[in-house]
Design brief:
It is a single chain. The protein is mainly alpha-helical and 222 residues long. The chain is built from six helices and no strands. Helix content is 77%, strand content 0%. The longest helix has 60 residues. The chain starts with a helix and ends with a helix.
C-alpha cells in the first residue's frame, strides 16, 4: 500500500464521517483555487526577480548568477505543478457542479412526479370517459337548438306564386295611375295674342319706293 493510501486510510473510516454536501465541496474547491492562484502569482513574480538577478550578476559574479537560475528553475517547476493542480481542480469542480445540477433536476422531477401521482389518484378514468361523453352530448344538443333558432318559421308559406305576381302588378299599376293623375298641365292664356301688322303685296311696296325716288329727284332739281 502506498504512503498516500495509508495517509487517507489512517484519517478514519468513511462511514464514521458524514459526506459533505455539494455546496460545501464546491466552496472548498473555490477556496483552493483562490489559494493556488495567489501562489501562482507569487511564483511568477519570484521567477522574474531571479531572472533580473541573474542578468545583474552576469559573468562578473557567475556563482550568484547560477544560483539565481537554479532558484528560477525550482520556481518554474512548482509553477508547472500548480498549473496542473488547478486544471484538475477546475475539472473536478465542473464535474461536481454538473452532478449537483443533475441531482437537483432529478429531485425536482421526482417531486413533480409525486404531485402528479397524488392528483391522478383522485381521478377515475371511467368517470372521466362518462363526463366527456356527457359534455359531447350537451354540445350536440346546444348545436341543434342554435340551428333550430336560426331557421325561418314556415307557417302559412304555401301561397300561389302566380297570384302573388298578379297582385303585385295590380299594385304597381294603381301606383302608376296615381302618379299620372297628380301631373298638372299648364294653363291656357286668357288674353288674345297681339295682332300682326298687315303685310302689303310686293308690287305695292315697289311702286311706293319708286314714287319716293321721283319725289327726291324733283326736290334736287328745284
Amino acid at each position: 500500500m502506498s504512503k498516500l493510501g495509508k495517509f487517507f486510510k489512517g484519517g478514519g473510516s468513511s462511514k464514521s464521517r458524514a459526506a459533505p454536501s455539494p455546496q460545501e465541496a464546491l466552496a472548498r474547491l473555490r477556496e483552493t483555487e483562490e489559494m493556488l492562484g495567489k501562489k501562482q502569482e507569487y511564483l511568477e513574480n519570484r521567477i522574474q526577480r531571479e531572472i533580473a538577478l541573474a542578468k545583474k550578476h552576469g559573468t562578473q559574479n557567475k556563482p550568484a548568477a547560477l544560483q539565481a537560475l537554479k532558484r528560477k528553475k525550482r520556481f518554474e517547476k512548482q509553477l508547472t505543478q500548480i498549473d496542473g493542480t488547478l486544471s484538475t481542480i477546475e475539472f473536478q469542480r465542473e464535474a461536481l457542479e454538473n452532478a449537483h445540477t443533475n441531482t437537483e433536476v432529478l429531485r425536482n422531477m421526482g417531486f413533480a412526479a409525486k404531485a402528479m401521482k397524488s392528483v391522478h389518484e383522485n381521478m377515475d378514468l371511467n368517470k372521466i370517459d362518462d363526463l366527456m361523453q356527457e359534455i359531447t352530448e350537451q354540445q350536440d344538443i346546444a348545436q341543434e337548438i342554435s340551428e333550430a333558432f336560426s331557421q325561418r318559421l314556415g307557417f302559412g308559406d304555401d301561397f300561389d306564386e302566380d297570384e302573388l305576381m298578379a297582385e303585385l302588378e295590380e299594385l304597381e299599376q294603381e301606383e302608376l295611375n296615381k302618379k299620372m293623375t297628380n301631373i298638372r298641365l299648364p294653363n291656357v292664356p286668357s288674353s288674345s295674342l297681339p295682332a300682326q301688322p298687315e303685310r302689303k303685296p310686293a308690287s305695292s311696296r315697289r311702286a311706293e319706293e319708286d314714287d319716293d325716288d321721283m319725289k327726291q329727284l324733283a326736290a334736287w332739281a328745284t
